[in-house]
Amino acid sequence: MKLENFKTGIYKQQFKYKSFSPIPINQEWTWDDARINRLLEEASTALAQLDTFSLIVPDVDRFIFMHVVKEANTSSQIEGTQTKMDEAVVEKEYIADEKRDDWQEVQNYIMAMNMAIKELEDIPLSNRLLRQTHERLLDGVRGDRKTPGEFRRSQNWIGGTSLSDAVFIPPHHDELPELLSDLEKFWHNEKINVPHLIRIAISHYQFETIHPFLDGNGRIGRLLIGLYLLDKGLLAKPSLYLSAHLAKYKGQYYDSLTTVRESDDLGQWVRFFLVAVRDTARKGVETFQNIISMREDMRSRIQSLGGRMHNGTRLLEELYVRPYLAGPQIEKLLGVSRPTANSLILEFIKLGILYETTGYRRNRQYFFRNYFELYLDK
Hints:
Blueprint: E1 9-13, E2 18-22, H1 34-56, H2 60-78, H3 85-88, H4 100-119, H5 127-137, H6 176-188, H7 196-210, H8 217-231, H9 243-248, H10 250-263, H11 266-301, H12 309-319, E3 324-326, H13 327-334, H14 338-350, E4 355-356, E5 365-367, H15 369-372
Antiparallel strand pairs: 1-2, 3-5, 4-5
Helix pairs in contact: 1-11, 2-4, 4-5, 4-8, 6-7, 7-8, 7-11, 10-11, 13-14
């Protein structure tokens, strides 16, 4: 099917409302739009460069952890959580009681994402994997009563307070088995010649239109993008996450998905998606370049520690994963006494590596600010 000829689906009369039934997508896709060709080339090039950097950065998994934290936090913010990224890297005991529910949702996302990435080593991308990930995502947080790990068996809706005033009503739950089977087949269909970035663009639209869960569809749908890229070998490491871009252009993101359903214009969504991949991959390359430079700078700084350089190196490596630490945490991570930890902390402050953030005399927290800011969108 040509993108230009796409007919997104039909509305079906249900009891007192109409649900939207999308057409299957497991088929050949072509297009006449030259803009898509250009953007596909640019996005593919940027993605390949990002993949190369993820393989040459030493101990890259330490730095990818912060990418995961950023994705979890930003994707959750799109859905309404209020946790800030600096709070997402702090241990629960240092989070104010009124913020812990949102904080836990972000932590669930991190754990769900890491679990899914690990599972891909043994099983291919599948609806089963998405259900398992969904179950972990909603475990013990808001939405945990909305059948975690199960596709819905009742009608849901988007916007409004009920079916009567909903902005959009996804397909009836009886249609889900066929639609989700078609979606999974599309991911793995080797008989069609559709580039992977086009497949995942169409897949994300289709997943969000199907809206197969009672809660958590947006987060799972965005997580699906990274899992697909890993599953198909476009990335060797989980280094591309689009939520920061999608959050920055949140209105356009939602409008683009809505436009497909209302105007059959799938091409504009594909273009939006390819721009998101291109720009995010380019920023990821820039971040890895800055990490390499900063790592050399930090190593140079701690040369002055003399006999304490061994513990200084260990602390620095921990800070790349946990850029926000309190004194007792540093003691525990390094297995040293409190005076030894405090002395090392003071040296790191003098070297401009750590900054004390609380202003308290007790329960102080220390921030590896320069590194953390590499992950912020400016």
